[in-house]
Amino acid sequence: MEYIEYKENRNNQNSFGEYYAIYFPKTKEYIIVEDHLEADELRKGNYNLTQKFTTKEEAINWAENCKIENFVEANAKKFYGIYFRDTSESLILTSPEEVSMAIYKRSTYCRKFLSKEKALEWIKQIKECGKDVIKKTSKVNEKKKKYYGIYFINTGKEIILDSSIDVMQTVKNSPTYCRKFDSEEKALEWLKIVKKTGKNIEPNTVKAYQNMPDSQIVSQRYYGVYLIESQKSFVTNLIEEANLAIKKEKGLIKKFRKKQDAINWTIECENSKRIYCAIFFTDELKGIITFNYEMRELFIKDKPNIIRAFGTIMEADKWLKNLEHFYRKEMEKLLKEDTIFFDVGTGRGIGEEVRVSDFEGNSLLNKLEEYTGLINQYGNYNLGKINNTNYGELYGLYLALLIALRNNIYKIAGDSKTVINQWSKGEIILSKILPYEQELIYKVIDLRKEFETKGGEVCYINASLNPADLGFHKNKRKVKVIEEVDNS
Asked: Is 0.90 surpassed by the pTM of this model?
């Protein structure tokens, strides 16, 4: 087991990226806070703009500029281009009320522009083409290339990738820091600072760190190591030495800023011989707390997880809450209008119901004409009582790919890792696959290749966050504390 530091000490005076500026355009007010959980609470249910800064002064300046920009935007003149389809006449107006009167009960094309020149250019293009020619941004041809900087916490290795799919495969089950950038140079600069600090710093704080002397950036770390079987302990400032020790013998690692704190922790371990291990399962977004080493090994077998040792249950539970919040926030980034979700469920007892939905849970199967009349009253496609959940998930991905390709949507998400990471990529064991499964698998493989060639991406989302979930197994946060049984 290797210890992974999740949250940095916020009392460090030299830390950066600690101020959150929240601006509310409707009221033209702003708030500056230092805690990200408090910031999230203030933002809930309110239209806002939020940015993170290294100093309070930067946060205030940004918020004040937002007030000025909001005023300018609200008072900027708008130009409405109108093309009358029945008479081929055109008109440009600046008043929304006049626009409403002009297009009332008329067949028109109408668009809003920030300049009169753009409105005139649009009208000219319509007259040439005979249709609305607003150029939609091509996500295939104009999609900007992204670079992902990846830092491996345990080894200190650093790489840069430009494919999100490669990133998912690379960081799988590995403790890493990963950030996305619009240029390779920015990714390299970020990785250089991360290597010096050992922190997952915000990209917008890189310049601030670059202007600091190395002596101020690099802070010493001490690792307390407790070997459970031999009940021995030691303190080191090298993570490599600590990791090597627990590879040879079962043990725990905890990181400290002060050497004396590390020494005190190892003494406490030797005296009490009881360490609370918080285990967070990244696939399930669930956590447990145990101080029984053998039980811990049983729980984590073949499951992606993050483990940390604590002196009290309260500390362990707080860490699990923060980690769950972080992972949920990362997955909730998928919950956008440009994503299609799929799932399957059997809770109604009428068979395998396949559901494909938007980010609000609304069924999208009506977009497939060939399925008209086959969709049940719940907006789902029923495969019947086939008793094959993986096939149902595969069928969901098949339908999602059809809808995405026909409607220029470039992101799909589901909660079946078997289908997303294996079957749809051709990673199958033919002897274990039924004939009707093979036929659909090959169709999905071809569709996914076409989808990804056009810039599409198929992602995993936890079942508890999947909008396409049929509602039969919603997860609630529950942390179990596993106690030892005294048989004496």
From this structure: no
